[in-house]
Amino acid sequence: MRRVPRIALAGAATASLALALSACGGTSTSDSSESKGDKGLAIAYDVGGKGDQSFNDAAFAGLEKAKKEFGYKTADLEPTDGETDADKTQRLVSLAKQGYNPVVGIGYAYAPAVKEAAAKYPDTTFGIVDDSTIEAKNVADLVFSEQEASYLAGVAAAKATKTHTVGFVGGVDIPLIHKFQAGFEQGVKDTDPKVKVLSQYLTQTADEGGFSSPDKGKTAAEGQIEKKADVVYAAAGLSGQGVIEAAAANKVWAIGVDSDQYRQEALAKYKGAILTSATKDVAKAVYNLAKSVEDGKPESGIVRGDLKSGEVGLADSNPQYKSDTAVQDAVEAAKEKIISGEIKVKTS
Q: What's this model's pTM, rounded to 2 decimal places?
Protein backbone atom coordinates (compact mmCIF):
# COMPACT_ATOMS: atom_id res chain seq x y z
CA MET A 1 0.00 0.00 0.00
CA ARG A 2 1.16 3.52 -0.72
CA ARG A 3 1.57 5.74 2.30
CA VAL A 4 -1.46 7.78 3.41
CA PRO A 5 -0.11 11.33 2.83
CA ARG A 6 0.55 10.49 -0.80
CA ILE A 7 -2.96 9.16 -1.33
CA ALA A 8 -4.43 12.18 0.39
CA LEU A 9 -2.47 14.44 -1.93
CA ALA A 10 -3.64 12.49 -4.96
CA GLY A 11 -7.22 12.79 -3.73
CA ALA A 12 -6.94 16.55 -3.35
CA ALA A 13 -5.45 16.85 -6.80
CA THR A 14 -8.25 14.68 -8.16
CA ALA A 15 -10.95 16.98 -6.82
CA SER A 16 -9.31 20.07 -8.29
CA LEU A 17 -8.70 18.40 -11.63
CA ALA A 18 -12.23 17.06 -11.81
CA LEU A 19 -13.62 20.57 -11.38
CA ALA A 20 -11.29 21.88 -14.06
CA LEU A 21 -12.30 19.16 -16.48
CA SER A 22 -15.98 19.71 -15.82
CA ALA A 23 -15.59 23.39 -16.52
CA CYS A 24 -14.00 22.74 -19.90
CA GLY A 25 -16.30 19.91 -20.89
CA GLY A 26 -13.83 17.11 -20.16
CA THR A 27 -14.39 13.83 -18.36
CA SER A 28 -13.07 12.62 -15.05
CA THR A 29 -12.30 9.03 -16.07
CA SER A 30 -8.59 9.38 -15.34
CA ASP A 31 -9.36 11.30 -12.14
CA SER A 32 -11.23 8.44 -10.54
CA SER A 33 -8.25 6.17 -11.07
CA GLU A 34 -5.92 8.88 -9.73
CA SER A 35 -7.84 8.91 -6.46
CA LYS A 36 -7.02 5.22 -6.04
CA GLY A 37 -3.36 6.15 -5.84
CA ASP A 38 -2.36 4.34 -9.02
CA LYS A 39 0.15 6.94 -10.19
CA GLY A 40 3.70 6.20 -9.25
CA LEU A 41 7.16 6.93 -10.57
CA ALA A 42 7.69 9.70 -13.11
CA ILE A 43 11.01 10.75 -14.62
CA ALA A 44 12.10 13.78 -16.62
CA TYR A 45 15.00 13.05 -18.97
CA ASP A 46 18.30 14.85 -19.25
CA VAL A 47 19.64 16.25 -22.54
CA GLY A 48 19.92 13.53 -25.16
CA GLY A 49 16.61 12.08 -23.98
CA LYS A 50 15.37 8.56 -24.22
CA GLY A 51 17.29 6.45 -26.70
CA ASP A 52 20.80 7.58 -25.73
CA GLN A 53 21.71 3.92 -24.97
CA SER A 54 23.38 5.21 -21.83
CA PHE A 55 22.37 7.50 -18.96
CA ASN A 56 18.73 8.26 -19.79
CA ASP A 57 17.97 4.75 -20.93
CA ALA A 58 19.27 3.41 -17.63
CA ALA A 59 16.77 5.62 -15.81
CA PHE A 60 14.00 4.34 -18.09
CA ALA A 61 14.96 0.76 -17.23
CA GLY A 62 14.41 1.59 -13.56
CA LEU A 63 11.04 3.10 -14.37
CA GLU A 64 9.99 0.03 -16.35
CA LYS A 65 10.96 -2.27 -13.49
CA ALA A 66 8.91 -0.22 -11.02
CA LYS A 67 5.94 -0.13 -13.39
CA LYS A 68 6.01 -3.90 -13.80
CA GLU A 69 6.48 -4.68 -10.11
CA PHE A 70 4.07 -2.16 -8.60
CA GLY A 71 1.46 -2.19 -11.35
CA TYR A 72 0.93 1.54 -11.41
CA LYS A 73 0.93 4.28 -14.00
CA THR A 74 4.29 5.89 -14.79
CA ALA A 75 5.38 8.82 -16.91
CA ASP A 76 8.60 9.84 -18.66
CA LEU A 77 9.02 13.25 -20.26
CA GLU A 78 11.57 14.49 -22.78
CA PRO A 79 13.57 17.73 -22.53
CA THR A 80 13.23 20.44 -25.16
CA ASP A 81 15.98 22.30 -26.99
CA GLY A 82 17.13 25.46 -25.26
CA GLU A 83 14.86 25.00 -22.27
CA THR A 84 15.22 27.09 -19.12
CA ASP A 85 15.16 26.18 -15.44
CA ALA A 86 11.59 27.47 -15.42
CA ASP A 87 10.69 24.95 -18.14
CA LYS A 88 12.21 22.13 -16.08
CA THR A 89 10.39 23.31 -12.97
CA GLN A 90 7.07 23.38 -14.81
CA ARG A 91 7.67 19.83 -16.03
CA LEU A 92 8.27 18.53 -12.51
CA VAL A 93 5.44 20.55 -11.00
CA SER A 94 3.06 19.21 -13.64
CA LEU A 95 3.99 15.63 -12.77
CA ALA A 96 3.59 16.22 -9.03
CA LYS A 97 0.29 18.02 -9.59
CA GLN A 98 -1.03 15.01 -11.51
CA GLY A 99 -0.26 12.80 -8.52
CA TYR A 100 2.94 11.06 -9.59
CA ASN A 101 5.20 10.07 -6.71
CA PRO A 102 8.17 9.96 -6.74
CA VAL A 103 9.19 12.46 -9.40
CA VAL A 104 12.81 12.23 -10.55
CA GLY A 105 14.93 14.70 -12.52
CA ILE A 106 17.54 12.81 -14.50
CA GLY A 107 20.74 14.84 -14.40
CA TYR A 108 22.37 17.62 -12.40
CA ALA A 109 20.74 20.31 -14.57
CA TYR A 110 17.46 19.65 -12.74
CA ALA A 111 18.81 20.90 -9.40
CA PRO A 112 17.08 24.33 -9.39
CA ALA A 113 13.86 22.76 -10.70
CA VAL A 114 13.81 19.95 -8.14
CA LYS A 115 14.48 22.39 -5.30
CA GLU A 116 11.59 24.63 -6.34
CA ALA A 117 9.13 21.84 -7.14
CA ALA A 118 9.90 20.02 -3.89
CA ALA A 119 9.13 23.17 -1.91
CA LYS A 120 5.77 23.49 -3.65
CA TYR A 121 4.85 19.82 -3.13
CA PRO A 122 6.25 18.80 0.28
CA ASP A 123 4.19 15.59 0.38
CA THR A 124 5.69 14.34 -2.88
CA THR A 125 9.08 12.67 -2.91
CA PHE A 126 11.50 14.04 -5.50
CA GLY A 127 14.76 12.59 -6.69
CA ILE A 128 17.65 13.98 -8.68
CA VAL A 129 20.42 11.97 -10.29
CA ASP A 130 24.00 13.27 -10.20
CA ASP A 131 23.48 16.17 -7.82
CA SER A 132 24.04 16.36 -4.07
CA THR A 133 23.28 20.02 -3.38
CA ILE A 134 19.60 19.86 -2.43
CA GLU A 135 18.84 19.54 1.26
CA ALA A 136 15.14 18.89 1.77
CA LYS A 137 13.19 16.23 3.65
CA ASN A 138 11.37 15.16 0.49
CA VAL A 139 14.38 15.03 -1.86
CA ALA A 140 16.75 12.13 -2.49
CA ASP A 141 20.09 13.05 -4.06
CA LEU A 142 20.99 9.98 -6.11
CA VAL A 143 24.74 10.15 -6.67
CA PHE A 144 27.54 7.76 -7.59
CA SER A 145 31.28 7.31 -7.19
CA GLU A 146 31.87 7.40 -10.94
CA GLN A 147 35.59 7.88 -10.39
CA GLU A 148 35.85 4.35 -9.00
CA ALA A 149 34.36 2.69 -12.07
CA SER A 150 36.46 4.99 -14.25
CA TYR A 151 39.61 3.92 -12.40
CA LEU A 152 38.82 0.32 -13.33
CA ALA A 153 38.24 1.43 -16.92
CA GLY A 154 41.71 2.98 -16.82
CA VAL A 155 43.19 -0.28 -15.57
CA ALA A 156 41.50 -2.17 -18.42
CA ALA A 157 42.64 0.41 -20.98
CA ALA A 158 46.25 0.29 -19.80
CA LYS A 159 46.27 -3.50 -20.02
CA ALA A 160 44.56 -3.58 -23.44
CA THR A 161 46.51 -0.89 -25.30
CA LYS A 162 49.16 -1.95 -27.81
CA THR A 163 50.26 1.57 -28.73
CA HIS A 164 50.71 2.82 -25.15
CA THR A 165 48.26 5.63 -25.96
CA VAL A 166 44.64 5.82 -24.82
CA GLY A 167 41.99 8.52 -24.96
CA PHE A 168 39.30 10.10 -22.80
CA VAL A 169 36.41 12.10 -24.28
CA GLY A 170 34.29 14.10 -21.86
CA GLY A 171 30.96 15.51 -22.98
CA VAL A 172 30.97 18.79 -21.04
CA ASP A 173 33.77 20.39 -19.01
CA ILE A 174 32.07 20.21 -15.58
CA PRO A 175 32.97 18.73 -12.16
CA LEU A 176 30.79 15.66 -12.70
CA ILE A 177 32.73 14.62 -15.80
CA HIS A 178 36.03 15.60 -14.18
CA LYS A 179 35.39 12.63 -11.86
CA PHE A 180 35.33 10.27 -14.84
CA GLN A 181 38.52 11.77 -16.26
CA ALA A 182 40.38 11.79 -12.95
CA GLY A 183 39.56 8.18 -12.15
CA PHE A 184 40.41 6.99 -15.63
CA GLU A 185 43.75 8.78 -15.80
CA GLN A 186 44.72 7.55 -12.33
CA GLY A 187 43.80 3.97 -13.21
CA VAL A 188 45.88 4.12 -16.38
CA LYS A 189 48.93 5.63 -14.69
CA ASP A 190 48.81 3.32 -11.65
CA THR A 191 48.71 0.35 -14.00
CA ASP A 192 51.36 1.48 -16.48
CA PRO A 193 53.03 4.90 -16.10
CA LYS A 194 54.33 4.64 -19.66
CA VAL A 195 50.84 4.83 -21.18
CA LYS A 196 49.91 8.27 -22.49
CA VAL A 197 46.36 9.58 -21.92
CA LEU A 198 44.85 12.03 -24.41
CA SER A 199 41.95 13.87 -22.75
CA GLN A 200 39.54 16.40 -24.19
CA TYR A 201 36.05 17.84 -23.72
CA LEU A 202 33.50 18.37 -26.45
CA THR A 203 31.92 21.58 -25.11
CA GLN A 204 32.04 23.94 -22.16
CA THR A 205 28.26 23.82 -21.58
CA ALA A 206 25.52 21.26 -22.11
CA ASP A 207 23.61 23.76 -24.26
CA GLU A 208 26.39 23.44 -26.85
CA GLY A 209 25.56 19.77 -27.35
CA GLY A 210 28.35 18.06 -25.46
CA PHE A 211 26.02 15.31 -24.24
CA SER A 212 23.80 15.11 -27.31
CA SER A 213 26.00 15.23 -30.43
CA PRO A 214 27.34 11.92 -31.74
CA ASP A 215 29.06 13.81 -34.56
CA LYS A 216 31.15 15.76 -32.04
CA GLY A 217 32.06 12.55 -30.24
CA LYS A 218 33.05 10.87 -33.47
CA THR A 219 35.28 13.76 -34.55
CA ALA A 220 37.00 13.88 -31.15
CA ALA A 221 37.65 10.14 -31.14
CA GLU A 222 38.98 10.20 -34.69
CA GLY A 223 41.44 12.91 -33.65
CA GLN A 224 42.69 10.81 -30.75
CA ILE A 225 42.91 7.70 -32.89
CA GLU A 226 45.03 9.62 -35.40
CA LYS A 227 47.39 10.28 -32.49
CA LYS A 228 47.69 6.52 -31.95
CA ALA A 229 45.07 6.02 -29.23
CA ASP A 230 43.81 2.44 -29.51
CA VAL A 231 41.45 2.55 -26.52
CA VAL A 232 39.04 5.49 -26.14
CA TYR A 233 36.79 6.00 -23.11
CA ALA A 234 33.84 8.37 -23.45
CA ALA A 235 31.80 9.96 -20.67
CA ALA A 236 29.56 11.96 -22.97
CA GLY A 237 26.00 10.65 -22.97
CA LEU A 238 24.54 10.40 -26.46
CA SER A 239 27.75 11.86 -27.91
CA GLY A 240 29.51 8.69 -26.81
CA GLN A 241 27.79 6.79 -29.61
CA GLY A 242 29.98 8.71 -32.05
CA VAL A 243 33.08 7.67 -30.12
CA ILE A 244 32.04 4.03 -30.32
CA GLU A 245 31.31 4.36 -34.04
CA ALA A 246 34.76 5.86 -34.65
CA ALA A 247 36.44 3.11 -32.65
CA ALA A 248 34.64 0.42 -34.62
CA ALA A 249 35.50 2.03 -37.97
CA ASN A 250 39.18 2.21 -37.02
CA LYS A 251 39.34 -1.21 -35.39
CA VAL A 252 40.34 0.02 -31.95
CA TRP A 253 38.67 -0.35 -28.58
CA ALA A 254 35.98 1.86 -27.09
CA ILE A 255 34.94 1.84 -23.44
CA GLY A 256 31.30 2.69 -22.88
CA VAL A 257 29.71 4.49 -19.95
CA ASP A 258 26.77 4.39 -17.53
CA SER A 259 24.94 1.46 -19.17
CA ASP A 260 26.45 -1.79 -20.44
CA GLN A 261 26.72 -0.47 -23.98
CA TYR A 262 27.81 -3.83 -25.39
CA ARG A 263 24.23 -4.97 -24.78
CA GLN A 264 22.47 -1.94 -26.24
CA GLU A 265 20.45 -2.93 -29.30
CA ALA A 266 21.06 0.35 -31.14
CA LEU A 267 24.81 -0.22 -30.85
CA ALA A 268 24.75 -3.89 -31.87
CA LYS A 269 26.70 -3.35 -35.09
CA TYR A 270 29.51 -1.73 -33.13
CA LYS A 271 29.57 -4.01 -30.09
CA GLY A 272 32.65 -5.88 -31.26
CA ALA A 273 34.59 -2.67 -30.59
CA ILE A 274 33.22 -2.15 -27.06
CA LEU A 275 35.80 -3.61 -24.69
CA THR A 276 33.76 -2.90 -21.57
CA SER A 277 31.64 -0.14 -20.03
CA ALA A 278 32.10 1.79 -16.80
CA THR A 279 28.62 1.39 -15.41
CA LYS A 280 26.62 3.16 -12.75
CA ASP A 281 23.32 1.62 -11.83
CA VAL A 282 20.99 4.55 -12.42
CA ALA A 283 18.22 2.00 -13.02
CA LYS A 284 18.67 0.56 -9.53
CA ALA A 285 18.82 3.99 -7.90
CA VAL A 286 15.62 5.13 -9.61
CA TYR A 287 13.85 1.85 -8.85
CA ASN A 288 14.98 1.86 -5.22
CA LEU A 289 13.60 5.35 -4.72
CA ALA A 290 10.26 4.24 -6.16
CA LYS A 291 10.26 1.18 -3.90
CA SER A 292 11.04 3.28 -0.83
CA VAL A 293 7.98 5.42 -1.57
CA GLU A 294 5.89 2.33 -2.21
CA ASP A 295 7.02 0.90 1.14
CA GLY A 296 6.10 4.11 2.94
CA LYS A 297 9.71 4.90 3.87
CA PRO A 298 10.86 7.32 1.15
CA GLU A 299 14.57 7.85 0.77
CA SER A 300 15.93 11.35 1.33
CA GLY A 301 19.28 13.07 1.55
CA ILE A 302 22.36 11.77 -0.21
CA VAL A 303 22.00 8.21 -1.50
CA ARG A 304 25.35 7.09 -2.94
CA GLY A 305 26.22 4.11 -5.10
CA ASP A 306 29.83 2.92 -5.26
CA LEU A 307 31.99 -0.13 -5.89
CA LYS A 308 31.32 -1.50 -2.42
CA SER A 309 27.55 -1.35 -2.92
CA GLY A 310 27.92 -2.80 -6.42
CA GLU A 311 26.26 0.19 -8.05
CA VAL A 312 29.29 1.17 -10.10
CA GLY A 313 31.67 -1.18 -11.87
CA LEU A 314 32.81 -2.60 -15.19
CA ALA A 315 30.61 -4.65 -17.47
CA ASP A 316 31.98 -7.97 -18.67
CA SER A 317 29.53 -8.75 -21.47
CA ASN A 318 32.20 -8.80 -24.17
CA PRO A 319 33.56 -12.39 -24.18
CA GLN A 320 36.95 -11.17 -25.38
CA TYR A 321 37.26 -8.89 -22.37
CA LYS A 322 35.89 -11.46 -19.95
CA SER A 323 38.31 -14.15 -21.13
CA ASP A 324 41.41 -11.93 -20.91
CA THR A 325 42.94 -13.23 -17.69
CA ALA A 326 45.56 -10.49 -17.40
CA VAL A 327 42.95 -7.74 -17.65
CA GLN A 328 40.53 -9.50 -15.33
CA ASP A 329 43.17 -10.10 -12.66
CA ALA A 330 44.34 -6.48 -12.79
CA VAL A 331 40.81 -5.09 -12.60
CA GLU A 332 39.81 -7.39 -9.74
CA ALA A 333 42.94 -6.51 -7.75
CA ALA A 334 42.27 -2.79 -8.22
CA LYS A 335 38.63 -3.23 -7.24
CA GLU A 336 39.56 -4.93 -3.98
CA LYS A 337 42.06 -2.19 -3.12
CA ILE A 338 39.52 0.56 -3.79
CA ILE A 339 36.88 -1.13 -1.64
CA SER A 340 39.37 -1.69 1.19
CA GLY A 341 40.54 1.90 1.02
CA GLU A 342 44.08 1.04 0.00
CA ILE A 343 43.57 2.97 -3.23
CA LYS A 344 42.06 6.44 -2.90
CA VAL A 345 40.58 7.49 -6.23
CA LYS A 346 40.78 11.16 -7.15
CA THR A 347 37.68 13.10 -8.17
CA SER A 348 39.42 15.91 -10.01
A: 0.83
